[in-house]
Write a structure and sequence with these properties.
globular, alpha/beta
Amino acid sequence: MDIQDGKVALVTGGRGGIGRAIVDRLTREGAVVYAADLSESGSVSNPAGADSHFLRLDVTSEPEAIAAMERIKTEHGKLDILVNAAGIEIEKTIEDTSLEEWNRSFAVNVTGTFLTSKYALPLMRKAAKSGSSASVINFGSYDGFIADPGLAAYCATKGAVHALTRAMACDHGPEGIRVNAICPGYIDTPMLQSFFTGDGSGGGGKTIDQLQQAVRDVHPMRTYGTPDDIANLVNWLASDEARYASGQLWVLDGGLSAQVQQMRL
């Protein structure tokens, strides 16, 4: 029997790099998975993978969040797993960030997590009453603990997601709903490739290959992660094997944030 047999999952950003890997993994593990995103094609090409149900969802829209949960209620009556993986990154200091860009960052990364979670809770309570814990998995970042230069708004949103995760875990743990956040470091996604070409990378005229190698070298493990690495952790946190795991910020960064950077000078 697969680890997620009989469960229903919703993954926001489900057609992005990390989201697509999560959708495929949960589907292979036996869950019925809704991949929610702005478009079915998403930010990466559609590789051969597991089937899922596409659900068009702008996470910043309250009516669309309500409609998404109504569809799941009609088709399945419960929701066991919610993965809030939708997110954007703006590579600017606060001085260069417009108010519109600042608000957009918070709308997607923080308000989106709030809205989908808010309207998923009634369905997740029903799942919890069936005998297994329901699981919400938010997406923070190691940038919610420490900061990369030129990512001010992104860092602020991820710190907010970390605090929201703890609050949700305290509020809804008594209802059998576990809430955790995964905090990735450098993961090989379209967002990371955009960072390599943007001002935030501090490229200084280096080639993409040189920047990628420099990023690998700064990690104790001398590599950065893949979407499948994240999907592996999501799969465990979503499973009943993680029944006692809640309210935690799970850093997955190849040891990057464990080291004192000055020691590399």
